[in-house]
TrEMBL record:
Pfam family, one: Aldo_ket_red
NADP-dependent oxidoreductase domain: residues covered: 16-308
Gene Ontology molecular function terms on file: oxidoreductase activity
Annotated EC: 1.1.1.-
Superkingdom of the source species: Bacteria
Keywords, in A-Z order: Oxidoreductase
Gene3D superfamilies, per the entry: NADP-dependent oxidoreductase domain
Protein name in UniProt: Aldo/keto reductase
């Protein structure tokens, strides 16, 4: 596995990371045994960058990672987790964003316990609440760095203005944003320019459009009960067929290049700059191996252009989140 530098932090991580959310929530029933096998294989492949959050299963995903990490060399893995989303105790759904300095410290200690480690490599603000000045939040996070509980700081789904304000308090090593062939507008332009000016890496989550770009879903009927994609606009009955046509175009180009559509999508993303680090999520061995192999692809500028043309910017139908979740983005 090739490595990439995490912004100006001095740290290096695997060029393709592993998003662990789906091992616990969002995409149908959890399969802890398969998840552990997938993590085992990730380690064998040299994937060191593991991404989770305290909101994934209300701590369950961190606990899964913690149990898997038990007994392994801590320095072999670069752990990223997030805080800020709070759940309603009755419904279990996210009902608010808490970026208060007091919560920052409580959440960090809780994540350390669940992960079973003495420090977090990269600690993100999962979502930002405009009610709390980002300078106060990052100031509290900086105290965690000083205490040795956290190494580097990150933000997720924020505006470029927020990134600048936060970076003025403490260096922000990474910004996690949704970025893929299917979702380009949130990164390309002002955000990417600001990241490059400040020396901040872009960690691209959902780089395969929640499985759509991989050709993993050919009909809504394939999605199991409890799969969040049934609620997301891009997988709705009115948008699905239009978006599937884009996937078919990507599959055709990938076939001519000699790779899978997932590898074409990841290869295109990796080619956007050495400061882009995709973290495709999976809980299946076959998908993990397919994604990891994308790092070895060497594509010509003409091939990259054809991949981009197969799924043009702005062509995907539907918003990337339901309305309530969208309201928490870009602050």
């Amino acid at each position: 596995m090739k490595n990439r530098r995490l912004g100006g932090s001095g740290a290096t991580v695997s060029a393709v990371g592993l998003g662990c959310m789906g091992m616990s929530i969002a995409y149908g029933p959890a399969d802890p045994a398969e998840a552990r096998r997938t993590l085992d294989r990730a380690a064998e492949l040299g994937i060191t960058f593991l991404d989770t959050a305290d909101a994934y299963g209300r701590g369950a995903n961190e606990e899964l990672l913690g149990s898997w990490l038990d007994g392994r060399a801590r320095e072999s893995f670069f752990l990223a987790t997030k805080f800020g989303l709070r759940h309603d105790p009755v419904s279990g759904r996210v009902d608010r964003v808490d970026n208060s300095p007091e919560h920052v410290k409580r959440a960090c200690d809780a994540s350390l316990r669940r992960l079973g480690v003495d420090h977090i490599d990269l600690y993100y603000v999962h979502r930002r609440s405009p009610e709390v000045p980002v300078e106060e939040t990052v100031g509290a996070m900086a105290e965690l760095v000083a205490a040795g509980k956290v190494r580097f700081l990150g933000l997720s789904e924020v505006s470029s203005r927020t990134l600048r304000d936060a970076h003025a308090v403490h260096p922000i090593s990474a910004v996690q944003m949704e970025y893929s062939l299917a979702t380009r507008d949130v990164v390309e332009g002002d955000m990417l320019a600001t990241c490059r000016e400040l020396g901040t890496a872009v960690v691209a989550y959902s780089p395969l459009g929640r499985g759509m770009l991989a050709g993993a879903v050919s009909s809504r009927e394939e999605l199991s009960e409890g799969d969040n994609r049934l609620r997301w606009p891009r997988f709705s009955a009115e948008n699905f067929d239009r978006n599937l046509a884009l996937v078919r175009a990507l599959e055709a180009v990938a076939g001519e290049i000699g790779c899978t559509p997932a590898q074409a999508a990841l290869g295109w993303l990796l080619a956007q700059g050495d400061d882009i680090i995709p973290i495709p999520g999976t809980k299946r061995l076959a998908r993990l191996e397919e994604n990891a192999a994308a790092v070895e692809l060497v594509m010509t500028p003409e091939q990259l252009a054809r991949i981009g043309d197969a799924v043009p910017a702005g062509a995907v139908a539907g918003a990337r989140y339901p309305e309530q979740a969208l309201s928490r983005l870009g602050h």
